[in-house]
Amino acid sequence: MSDYIKENLNKDGIDRRGFLKCMAWVGTGTLCVLKGGVLKSYALGDVMQHKVGDFKGDLSFVQISDSHIGFNKAANPDVTATLREAIAKVNALPTPPAFVLHTGDLTHLSKPAEFDTLAESLKSLKTERVFYVPGEHDVLDDNGAMFRERFGQGAMGDGWHSFDRNGIHFVGLVNVMNLKAGGLGSLGNEQLEWLQKDVSGLKSSTPIVLFAHIPLWAVYPQWGWGTDDSEQALSYLKRFGSVTVLNGHIHQTMQKVEGNVTFHTACSTAFPQPQPGQADSPGPMKVPDDKLRQLLGITDVNFVRGTHSLAVVDSTLA
Amino acid sequence: MKNTRWILTFVLTALAGLTSIAVTQPGVAKAGDQPASAEVKIDNFSFGPPTLTVAAGTTVTWKNNDDVPHTVVSDDKVFKSKALDTDDKYSYTFTKPGTYNYFCSVHPKMTAKIVVQ
Hints:
The complex is a heterodimer.
Chain A: H1 16-23, E1 30-35, E2 38-43, H2 44-47, E3 59-64, H3 79-91, E4 100-102, H4 112-122, E5 130-132, H5 145-151, E6 161-165, E7 168-172, H6 189-200, E8 208-211, H7 230-235, E9 243-247, E10 254-258, E11 261-265, H8 289-292, E12 297-304, E13 309-316
Parallel strand pairs in A: 3-4, 4-5, 7-8, 8-9, 9-11
Antiparallel strand pairs in A: 1-2, 1-13, 3-12, 6-7, 10-11, 12-13
Helix pairs in contact in A: 3-4
Chain B: H1 2-28, E1 37-43, E2 46-48, E3 51-54, E4 58-64, E5 73-74, E6 89-94, E7 98-103, E8 111-116
Parallel strand pairs in B: 1-4, 3-8
Antiparallel strand pairs in B: 1-2, 4-6, 5-7, 7-8
Protein backbone atom coordinates (compact mmCIF):
# COMPACT_ATOMS: atom_id res chain seq x y z
CA MET A 1 0.00 0.00 0.00
CA SER A 2 1.44 3.32 -1.04
CA ASP A 3 -1.51 5.57 -0.21
CA TYR A 4 -0.74 7.82 2.72
CA ILE A 5 -2.16 11.19 3.60
CA LYS A 6 0.50 13.61 2.41
CA GLU A 7 -1.17 17.01 2.73
CA ASN A 8 -3.29 17.04 5.84
CA LEU A 9 -3.96 20.81 5.58
CA ASN A 10 -7.09 20.90 7.71
CA LYS A 11 -5.81 18.40 10.29
CA ASP A 12 -8.82 16.25 9.47
CA GLY A 13 -7.08 13.21 8.14
CA ILE A 14 -8.17 13.93 4.57
CA ASP A 15 -6.06 15.30 1.78
CA ARG A 16 -7.26 15.89 -1.77
CA ARG A 17 -5.56 12.77 -3.04
CA GLY A 18 -7.05 10.68 -0.26
CA PHE A 19 -10.49 12.14 -0.79
CA LEU A 20 -10.38 11.50 -4.51
CA LYS A 21 -9.16 8.00 -3.81
CA CYS A 22 -12.19 7.51 -1.63
CA MET A 23 -14.48 9.04 -4.25
CA ALA A 24 -13.10 6.96 -7.07
CA TRP A 25 -13.81 3.32 -7.57
CA VAL A 26 -11.62 1.22 -5.45
CA GLY A 27 -9.93 -1.95 -6.52
CA THR A 28 -8.33 -2.64 -3.19
CA GLY A 29 -10.08 -1.15 -0.20
CA THR A 30 -10.69 2.06 1.65
CA LEU A 31 -11.87 2.56 5.17
CA CYS A 32 -14.09 5.56 5.75
CA VAL A 33 -15.00 6.42 9.31
CA LEU A 34 -17.76 8.87 10.01
CA LYS A 35 -17.41 10.71 13.33
CA GLY A 36 -19.81 13.50 14.19
CA GLY A 37 -20.63 13.99 10.53
CA VAL A 38 -16.97 14.28 9.52
CA LEU A 39 -15.55 11.66 7.23
CA LYS A 40 -12.09 10.31 7.86
CA SER A 41 -10.70 8.18 5.12
CA TYR A 42 -7.82 5.75 5.41
CA ALA A 43 -6.23 3.52 2.85
CA LEU A 44 -6.14 -0.04 4.12
CA GLY A 45 -2.37 0.20 4.52
CA ASP A 46 -2.91 2.90 7.13
CA VAL A 47 -5.61 0.88 8.82
CA MET A 48 -3.16 -1.93 9.43
CA GLN A 49 -1.21 0.41 11.73
CA HIS A 50 -4.22 0.72 14.01
CA LYS A 51 -5.35 -1.91 16.44
CA VAL A 52 -8.30 -3.97 15.25
CA GLY A 53 -10.26 -2.69 18.25
CA ASP A 54 -10.07 0.87 16.95
CA PHE A 55 -12.59 -0.03 14.30
CA LYS A 56 -14.57 -2.64 16.16
CA GLY A 57 -17.97 -1.39 17.16
CA ASP A 58 -21.10 -2.43 18.98
CA LEU A 59 -22.82 -3.47 15.82
CA SER A 60 -21.40 -4.96 12.65
CA PHE A 61 -23.40 -5.61 9.55
CA VAL A 62 -22.57 -6.29 5.92
CA GLN A 63 -23.93 -4.95 2.65
CA ILE A 64 -23.86 -7.08 -0.48
CA SER A 65 -25.34 -5.99 -3.78
CA ASP A 66 -26.07 -6.69 -7.43
CA SER A 67 -25.71 -10.48 -7.50
CA HIS A 68 -27.50 -10.66 -10.90
CA ILE A 69 -28.13 -14.41 -10.63
CA GLY A 70 -28.90 -15.63 -14.16
CA PHE A 71 -26.40 -13.35 -15.92
CA ASN A 72 -24.05 -15.52 -18.01
CA LYS A 73 -22.32 -13.21 -20.48
CA ALA A 74 -18.61 -12.53 -21.01
CA ALA A 75 -18.27 -10.05 -18.14
CA ASN A 76 -18.79 -13.01 -15.75
CA PRO A 77 -20.11 -16.37 -16.99
CA ASP A 78 -20.48 -17.72 -13.42
CA VAL A 79 -22.10 -15.16 -11.13
CA THR A 80 -23.22 -17.87 -8.70
CA ALA A 81 -19.57 -18.77 -8.07
CA THR A 82 -18.59 -15.17 -7.30
CA LEU A 83 -21.64 -14.78 -5.03
CA ARG A 84 -20.46 -17.85 -3.12
CA GLU A 85 -16.99 -16.31 -2.84
CA ALA A 86 -18.56 -13.13 -1.47
CA ILE A 87 -20.48 -15.21 1.08
CA ALA A 88 -17.26 -16.96 2.09
CA LYS A 89 -15.68 -13.53 2.54
CA VAL A 90 -18.53 -12.47 4.84
CA ASN A 91 -18.29 -15.71 6.81
CA ALA A 92 -14.57 -15.15 7.31
CA LEU A 93 -14.95 -11.67 8.86
CA PRO A 94 -13.40 -11.41 12.34
CA THR A 95 -16.66 -10.00 13.69
CA PRO A 96 -19.67 -11.90 12.32
CA PRO A 97 -22.30 -9.48 10.99
CA ALA A 98 -25.51 -9.18 13.00
CA PHE A 99 -27.36 -9.13 9.71
CA VAL A 100 -26.81 -8.60 6.00
CA LEU A 101 -28.39 -6.01 3.71
CA HIS A 102 -28.82 -6.97 0.07
CA THR A 103 -29.29 -3.75 -1.89
CA GLY A 104 -30.99 -5.21 -4.95
CA ASP A 105 -30.58 -6.88 -8.30
CA LEU A 106 -30.62 -10.25 -6.61
CA THR A 107 -31.42 -11.66 -10.06
CA HIS A 108 -30.78 -10.64 -13.64
CA LEU A 109 -34.22 -11.43 -15.11
CA SER A 110 -36.60 -11.87 -12.11
CA LYS A 111 -36.99 -15.58 -12.92
CA PRO A 112 -38.19 -18.00 -10.21
CA ALA A 113 -35.11 -20.23 -10.68
CA GLU A 114 -32.83 -17.20 -10.26
CA PHE A 115 -34.56 -16.20 -7.00
CA ASP A 116 -34.23 -19.87 -5.91
CA THR A 117 -30.47 -19.90 -6.50
CA LEU A 118 -30.02 -16.59 -4.70
CA ALA A 119 -32.06 -17.71 -1.68
CA GLU A 120 -30.34 -21.10 -1.57
CA SER A 121 -26.86 -19.53 -1.77
CA LEU A 122 -27.52 -16.96 0.97
CA LYS A 123 -28.62 -19.71 3.37
CA SER A 124 -24.93 -20.37 4.00
CA LEU A 125 -24.38 -16.81 5.32
CA LYS A 126 -23.42 -16.94 8.98
CA THR A 127 -25.77 -14.23 10.13
CA GLU A 128 -29.12 -13.88 11.80
CA ARG A 129 -31.08 -12.40 8.94
CA VAL A 130 -30.89 -10.83 5.49
CA PHE A 131 -32.87 -7.68 4.67
CA TYR A 132 -33.61 -6.94 1.02
CA VAL A 133 -34.62 -4.08 -1.23
CA PRO A 134 -35.33 -4.78 -4.91
CA GLY A 135 -33.30 -3.63 -7.88
CA GLU A 136 -34.88 -2.93 -11.27
CA HIS A 137 -33.85 -6.44 -12.39
CA ASP A 138 -35.97 -7.99 -9.61
CA VAL A 139 -39.25 -6.39 -10.63
CA LEU A 140 -39.38 -7.11 -14.39
CA ASP A 141 -42.82 -7.92 -15.84
CA ASP A 142 -44.66 -8.45 -12.52
CA ASN A 143 -44.06 -5.13 -10.72
CA GLY A 144 -42.10 -6.96 -8.07
CA ALA A 145 -44.87 -9.32 -6.89
CA MET A 146 -42.57 -12.36 -6.75
CA PHE A 147 -39.79 -10.40 -5.07
CA ARG A 148 -42.12 -9.13 -2.34
CA GLU A 149 -43.67 -12.55 -1.79
CA ARG A 150 -40.27 -14.15 -1.26
CA PHE A 151 -38.04 -11.40 0.16
CA GLY A 152 -40.34 -8.63 1.34
CA GLN A 153 -42.05 -10.16 4.37
CA GLY A 154 -43.42 -7.45 6.62
CA ALA A 155 -42.63 -4.69 4.13
CA MET A 156 -45.00 -1.91 3.11
CA GLY A 157 -46.13 -0.73 -0.35
CA ASP A 158 -43.63 -1.75 -3.02
CA GLY A 159 -41.33 -3.29 -0.39
CA TRP A 160 -40.13 -0.47 1.85
CA HIS A 161 -39.56 -1.16 5.55
CA SER A 162 -37.69 -0.01 8.64
CA PHE A 163 -36.24 -1.58 11.77
CA ASP A 164 -34.09 -0.68 14.77
CA ARG A 165 -30.89 -2.32 15.95
CA ASN A 166 -28.54 -1.15 18.71
CA GLY A 167 -30.08 2.32 18.68
CA ILE A 168 -29.67 2.73 14.92
CA HIS A 169 -32.74 3.22 12.74
CA PHE A 170 -32.53 1.37 9.41
CA VAL A 171 -34.80 2.22 6.49
CA GLY A 172 -35.00 0.13 3.30
CA LEU A 173 -36.36 2.17 0.38
CA VAL A 174 -37.58 1.10 -3.07
CA ASN A 175 -36.66 3.40 -5.97
CA VAL A 176 -36.95 1.04 -8.96
CA MET A 177 -40.72 1.02 -9.53
CA ASN A 178 -43.01 3.16 -11.71
CA LEU A 179 -40.10 4.86 -13.44
CA LYS A 180 -41.04 7.74 -15.73
CA ALA A 181 -39.85 8.23 -19.32
CA GLY A 182 -36.66 10.27 -19.32
CA GLY A 183 -36.40 10.10 -15.53
CA LEU A 184 -34.18 8.51 -12.89
CA GLY A 185 -34.93 6.27 -9.94
CA SER A 186 -38.14 7.19 -8.14
CA LEU A 187 -39.45 6.86 -4.58
CA GLY A 188 -42.95 8.22 -5.20
CA ASN A 189 -45.28 10.22 -2.96
CA GLU A 190 -46.72 7.30 -1.01
CA GLN A 191 -43.27 6.13 0.08
CA LEU A 192 -42.08 9.68 0.83
CA GLU A 193 -45.08 10.25 3.10
CA TRP A 194 -44.40 6.97 4.85
CA LEU A 195 -40.72 7.89 5.34
CA GLN A 196 -41.61 11.27 6.82
CA LYS A 197 -43.89 9.60 9.37
CA ASP A 198 -41.46 6.76 9.99
CA VAL A 199 -38.67 9.07 11.22
CA SER A 200 -40.86 11.77 12.80
CA GLY A 201 -40.85 10.23 16.30
CA LEU A 202 -37.10 9.61 16.48
CA LYS A 203 -34.63 11.63 18.50
CA SER A 204 -32.27 13.72 16.36
CA SER A 205 -29.35 11.88 17.94
CA THR A 206 -30.53 8.57 16.45
CA PRO A 207 -28.10 7.39 13.76
CA ILE A 208 -29.99 6.69 10.54
CA VAL A 209 -29.03 4.20 7.85
CA LEU A 210 -30.95 4.40 4.56
CA PHE A 211 -30.47 1.62 2.04
CA ALA A 212 -31.86 1.47 -1.48
CA HIS A 213 -30.79 0.10 -4.86
CA ILE A 214 -30.26 3.14 -7.09
CA PRO A 215 -28.03 5.84 -5.54
CA LEU A 216 -29.94 8.50 -3.60
CA TRP A 217 -27.53 11.14 -4.94
CA ALA A 218 -26.76 12.28 -8.45
CA VAL A 219 -23.78 10.06 -9.27
CA TYR A 220 -24.22 10.38 -13.05
CA PRO A 221 -27.75 11.24 -14.19
CA GLN A 222 -26.80 10.79 -17.87
CA TRP A 223 -26.65 7.07 -17.13
CA GLY A 224 -29.67 7.13 -14.83
CA TRP A 225 -27.45 6.92 -11.75
CA GLY A 226 -29.55 8.97 -9.39
CA THR A 227 -33.07 9.27 -7.93
CA ASP A 228 -35.48 12.02 -9.00
CA ASP A 229 -37.03 12.65 -5.58
CA SER A 230 -34.13 11.73 -3.29
CA GLU A 231 -33.72 15.34 -2.10
CA GLN A 232 -37.25 15.26 -0.77
CA ALA A 233 -36.44 12.09 1.18
CA LEU A 234 -33.22 13.55 2.57
CA SER A 235 -35.01 16.75 3.62
CA TYR A 236 -36.81 14.68 6.28
CA LEU A 237 -33.42 13.67 7.71
CA LYS A 238 -31.76 17.08 8.02
CA ARG A 239 -32.18 17.25 11.81
CA PHE A 240 -30.35 13.97 12.40
CA GLY A 241 -26.69 14.11 13.34
CA SER A 242 -25.62 11.01 11.46
CA VAL A 243 -27.18 9.71 8.25
CA THR A 244 -25.53 6.96 6.21
CA VAL A 245 -26.91 6.06 2.78
CA LEU A 246 -25.97 2.68 1.30
CA ASN A 247 -26.72 1.98 -2.36
CA GLY A 248 -25.80 -0.47 -5.13
CA HIS A 249 -26.71 -0.35 -8.84
CA ILE A 250 -23.48 1.15 -10.20
CA HIS A 251 -21.26 -1.89 -9.49
CA GLN A 252 -18.37 0.13 -8.05
CA THR A 253 -17.62 1.85 -4.77
CA MET A 254 -18.07 5.58 -4.42
CA GLN A 255 -18.36 7.80 -1.42
CA LYS A 256 -19.55 11.33 -0.90
CA VAL A 257 -20.20 13.42 2.19
CA GLU A 258 -22.75 16.21 2.19
CA GLY A 259 -23.41 17.84 5.55
CA ASN A 260 -24.66 15.18 7.94
CA VAL A 261 -25.05 12.58 5.19
CA THR A 262 -22.47 10.06 4.01
CA PHE A 263 -23.36 8.36 0.75
CA HIS A 264 -21.76 5.08 -0.17
CA THR A 265 -22.19 2.63 -3.04
CA ALA A 266 -21.09 -1.01 -2.91
CA CYS A 267 -19.40 -3.31 -5.37
CA SER A 268 -21.41 -5.94 -7.20
CA THR A 269 -20.82 -9.63 -6.49
CA ALA A 270 -21.36 -10.33 -10.23
CA PHE A 271 -19.63 -7.98 -12.69
CA PRO A 272 -18.13 -4.48 -12.78
CA GLN A 273 -19.53 -1.51 -14.66
CA PRO A 274 -17.52 1.37 -16.12
CA GLN A 275 -16.70 4.57 -14.29
CA PRO A 276 -19.20 7.35 -15.08
CA GLY A 277 -18.88 8.46 -18.70
CA GLN A 278 -15.88 6.20 -19.36
CA ALA A 279 -17.73 3.95 -21.84
CA ASP A 280 -20.55 4.17 -24.40
CA SER A 281 -23.02 2.80 -21.88
CA PRO A 282 -23.20 1.62 -18.26
CA GLY A 283 -23.50 -2.04 -19.32
CA PRO A 284 -21.48 -4.95 -17.89
CA MET A 285 -17.74 -4.37 -18.32
CA LYS A 286 -15.51 -7.20 -19.49
CA VAL A 287 -12.12 -7.13 -17.77
CA PRO A 288 -9.29 -9.67 -17.97
CA ASP A 289 -10.20 -12.82 -16.01
CA ASP A 290 -7.47 -12.24 -13.43
CA LYS A 291 -8.79 -8.73 -12.71
CA LEU A 292 -12.46 -9.62 -12.21
CA ARG A 293 -12.29 -10.49 -8.52
CA GLN A 294 -10.45 -7.24 -7.78
CA LEU A 295 -13.58 -5.39 -8.88
CA LEU A 296 -16.19 -7.45 -7.02
CA GLY A 297 -16.70 -7.38 -3.30
CA ILE A 298 -18.61 -6.80 -0.09
CA THR A 299 -19.03 -3.87 2.30
CA ASP A 300 -18.56 -4.28 6.04
CA VAL A 301 -20.06 -1.61 8.31
CA ASN A 302 -19.26 -1.10 11.99
CA PHE A 303 -21.04 1.14 14.44
CA VAL A 304 -19.18 2.48 17.46
CA ARG A 305 -21.47 3.50 20.33
CA GLY A 306 -20.81 6.87 21.92
CA THR A 307 -18.93 8.27 18.96
CA HIS A 308 -21.92 7.71 16.68
CA SER A 309 -19.61 6.60 13.98
CA LEU A 310 -20.19 4.15 11.20
CA ALA A 311 -17.04 2.69 9.71
CA VAL A 312 -17.60 1.54 6.16
CA VAL A 313 -15.01 -0.88 4.79
CA ASP A 314 -15.08 -2.21 1.24
CA SER A 315 -13.17 -5.36 0.50
CA THR A 316 -12.83 -7.10 -2.81
CA LEU A 317 -12.94 -10.82 -3.56
CA ALA A 318 -9.26 -10.85 -4.57
CA MET B 1 -25.76 -51.44 -48.05
CA LYS B 2 -26.34 -50.16 -51.54
CA ASN B 3 -30.11 -50.10 -50.88
CA THR B 4 -29.63 -48.12 -47.71
CA ARG B 5 -27.64 -45.50 -49.62
CA TRP B 6 -30.39 -45.28 -52.26
CA ILE B 7 -33.05 -44.81 -49.61
CA LEU B 8 -30.96 -42.18 -47.86
CA THR B 9 -30.40 -40.31 -51.11
CA PHE B 10 -34.12 -40.49 -51.86
CA VAL B 11 -35.06 -39.18 -48.44
CA LEU B 12 -32.53 -36.35 -48.60
CA THR B 13 -33.71 -35.35 -52.07
CA ALA B 14 -37.32 -35.37 -50.90
CA LEU B 15 -36.39 -33.25 -47.84
CA ALA B 16 -34.47 -30.80 -50.00
CA GLY B 17 -37.52 -30.49 -52.26
CA LEU B 18 -39.80 -29.79 -49.29
CA THR B 19 -37.39 -27.22 -47.94
CA SER B 20 -37.17 -25.40 -51.23
CA ILE B 21 -40.97 -25.30 -51.43
CA ALA B 22 -41.14 -23.92 -47.88
CA VAL B 23 -38.50 -21.30 -48.60
CA THR B 24 -40.07 -20.12 -51.86
CA GLN B 25 -43.60 -20.04 -50.47
CA PRO B 26 -43.58 -16.39 -49.30
CA GLY B 27 -42.38 -15.37 -52.77
CA VAL B 28 -45.64 -16.68 -54.21
CA ALA B 29 -47.55 -13.79 -52.70
CA LYS B 30 -47.75 -10.60 -54.74
CA ALA B 31 -45.31 -7.86 -53.71
CA GLY B 32 -48.17 -5.51 -52.83
CA ASP B 33 -49.50 -7.95 -50.21
CA GLN B 34 -46.29 -7.88 -48.21
CA PRO B 35 -46.89 -6.03 -44.96
CA ALA B 36 -44.35 -3.25 -44.37
CA SER B 37 -41.84 -3.87 -41.64
CA ALA B 38 -39.10 -1.91 -39.94
CA GLU B 39 -36.56 -2.60 -37.23
CA VAL B 40 -35.28 -0.71 -34.20
CA LYS B 41 -32.02 -1.93 -32.70
CA ILE B 42 -31.27 -1.66 -29.00
CA ASP B 43 -27.54 -1.14 -28.56
CA ASN B 44 -25.53 0.42 -25.73
CA PHE B 45 -28.61 1.51 -23.80
CA SER B 46 -30.17 3.35 -26.74
CA PHE B 47 -32.83 2.82 -29.39
CA GLY B 48 -31.66 3.19 -33.00
CA PRO B 49 -32.84 5.09 -34.84
CA PRO B 50 -34.10 7.41 -32.07
CA THR B 51 -36.88 8.59 -34.43
CA LEU B 52 -38.33 6.11 -36.92
CA THR B 53 -40.91 7.26 -39.47
CA VAL B 54 -43.15 4.57 -40.99
CA ALA B 55 -46.39 4.26 -42.94
CA ALA B 56 -49.56 3.18 -41.14
CA GLY B 57 -49.81 -0.60 -41.11
CA THR B 58 -46.09 -1.09 -40.57
CA THR B 59 -44.91 -3.68 -38.10
CA VAL B 60 -41.93 -2.45 -36.11
CA THR B 61 -39.66 -5.03 -34.51
CA TRP B 62 -37.26 -4.14 -31.71
CA LYS B 63 -34.23 -6.36 -31.07
CA ASN B 64 -32.12 -6.16 -27.93
CA ASN B 65 -28.40 -6.51 -28.64
CA ASP B 66 -27.30 -5.56 -25.09
CA ASP B 67 -26.11 -7.85 -22.28
CA VAL B 68 -28.86 -6.50 -20.02
CA PRO B 69 -32.65 -6.67 -20.36
CA HIS B 70 -34.62 -3.74 -21.75
CA THR B 71 -38.30 -3.07 -22.37
CA VAL B 72 -40.21 -1.12 -25.02
CA VAL B 73 -43.07 0.83 -23.43
CA SER B 74 -45.02 3.70 -25.00
CA ASP B 75 -45.46 6.71 -22.73
CA ASP B 76 -49.26 6.36 -22.90
CA LYS B 77 -49.09 2.52 -22.60
CA VAL B 78 -50.44 1.89 -26.13
CA PHE B 79 -47.81 -0.84 -26.43
CA LYS B 80 -45.69 -2.52 -23.79
CA SER B 81 -43.22 -5.37 -24.19
CA LYS B 82 -42.12 -7.82 -21.57
CA ALA B 83 -38.46 -7.63 -20.53
CA LEU B 84 -36.32 -8.47 -23.56
CA ASP B 85 -33.19 -10.43 -22.75
CA THR B 86 -30.19 -10.45 -25.12
CA ASP B 87 -31.32 -11.15 -28.73
CA ASP B 88 -35.03 -11.13 -27.79
CA LYS B 89 -37.44 -9.33 -30.12
CA TYR B 90 -40.74 -7.54 -29.72
CA SER B 91 -43.08 -6.44 -32.54
CA TYR B 92 -45.99 -4.03 -32.71
CA THR B 93 -48.09 -3.09 -35.74
CA PHE B 94 -48.92 0.61 -35.99
CA THR B 95 -52.34 1.09 -37.58
CA LYS B 96 -53.10 4.69 -36.55
CA PRO B 97 -51.05 7.70 -37.68
CA GLY B 98 -49.46 9.74 -34.93
CA THR B 99 -46.31 10.18 -32.85
CA TYR B 100 -45.63 7.42 -30.34
CA ASN B 101 -43.06 8.33 -27.70
CA TYR B 102 -41.67 5.30 -25.93
CA PHE B 103 -38.98 4.38 -23.40
CA CYS B 104 -37.34 1.49 -21.56
CA SER B 105 -39.13 1.11 -18.22
CA VAL B 106 -36.01 -0.52 -16.74
CA HIS B 107 -33.68 2.30 -17.86
CA PRO B 108 -36.02 5.27 -18.33
CA LYS B 109 -33.22 7.50 -19.65
CA MET B 110 -33.63 5.47 -22.86
CA THR B 111 -36.28 7.31 -24.88
CA ALA B 112 -37.20 7.35 -28.61
CA LYS B 113 -40.22 7.71 -30.87
CA ILE B 114 -42.08 6.18 -33.80
CA VAL B 115 -43.80 8.59 -36.20
CA VAL B 116 -46.63 6.88 -38.11
CA GLN B 117 -47.82 8.65 -41.28
